[in-house]
Design brief:
The structure is a single chain. With 279 residues, the chain is an alpha+beta fold. The chain has two domains: 33 residues; 176 residues, no CATH class. The chain has four helices and 13 strands. The strands form four sheets. It has a four-stranded antiparallel β-sheet with strand order 1-10-9-2. The radius of gyration is 20 Å and the shape is globular. The chain starts with 10 loop residues before the first helix and ends in an 18-residue tail after the last strand.
């Protein structure tokens, strides 16, 4: 029989384990001399490097819509911790260092969380949509991602998906953070806000970008292994284009998806299924 981990001995033990891991990460950051952005300015920087919007309420297979509604409350609270943030050259953005632990005391509600490839409910659920938004913006800039954690499995079928599969990021206080560094010569600004329908986000700067970025997904398909288990496969590339000439500067592979399908196989589009994976 497997010996229980300390965090498995009930809710109190779990909270103690989380606290311990958070402090270990803080100490590591201190020793590594991390400089995290903290200052805000709500006067918009002139140039928008990238802006986007994401639908807040999506009908996900097997997910209670009440959890989606609670997510909006959670995102509104978190957005106040991030909106207007100025990231100077050499500084890093850290999701959890800004937002902090999501607790009931702070007004957070029960929402959808994903843990060990399982859908669960938890206080502060749904904050990953904010991290996903920011990561999507960052991918369209020269900023450098310093920490992110991909979802390992395909948990939901596509419902009006507008971005390539797999470009989201997992977050869990404080072990799984989302971070990026301003490696440019100029400060940048993050703006995030919500209405009843959309989550909006922008990365702005005091200078315009000389390049534009495209994220494309290729070779998207499903295939099953010798055990009859389906996997979703694709390759995601980032294409960098010179704005003045329109010429492609670089095409780089940023993600090679091979994700186990965790939902009902009947929801897989038949025209996207290929032959079995060869061992």
């Amino acid at each position: 029989m497997r010996r229980k981990l300390f965090c498995e001995y009930g809710p109190i033990a779990y909270k103690i384990a989380l606290f311990k891991e958070a402090k270990k990460k803080d100490l590591k950051d201190l020793l590594n001399g991390k400089k995290f952005a903290k200052k805000r300015n709500y006067e918009n920087f002139e140039f928008i490097w990238k802006g986007d919007s994401k639908v807040l309420l999506r009908k996900l297979h097997g997910v209670d819509m009440e959890l989606q509604k609670n997510k909006i409350t959670n995102l509104k609270i978190a957005s106040k911790k991030i909106d207007g943030l100025i990231i100077n050259p050499g500084e890093e953005f850290s999701f959890w260092n800004l937002v902090g632990n999501a607790t009931k005391k702070k007004g957070y509600k029960e929402g959808l969380v994903i843990s060990n490839s399982q859908m669960k409910t938890g206080v502060g659920g749904g904050l990953c949509q904010m991290a996903n938004m920011i990561h999507w913006l960052v991918l369209h800039t020269p900023l450098q991602v310093t920490e992110m954690h991909h979802h390992s499995d395909a948990l939901f079928p596509d419902v009006k998906r507008r971005v390539p599969f797999g470009t989201g990021t997992s977050i869990s206080y404080k072990a799984l953070d989302y971070r990026f560094k301003n490696t440019t010569q100029n400060p940048i600004q993050i703006r995030v806000w919500l209405d009843d329908t959309f989550l909006y986000g922008e990365i702005r700067s005091i200078v315009p970008l000389t390049q534009k970025y495209k994220i494309v997904e290729e070779d998207n398909h499903y295939a099953k292994d010798e055990n009859g288990v389906f996997y979703r496969n694709s390759k995601v590339y980032r294409i960098i284009i010179d704005k003045e000439t329109g010429k492609e500067i670089k095409k780089e592979l940023i993600l090679n998806n091979h994700s186990k399908v965790m939902y009902d196989y009947s929801l897989i589009p038949e025209n996207e299924i290929r032959e079995e994976i060869k061992s």
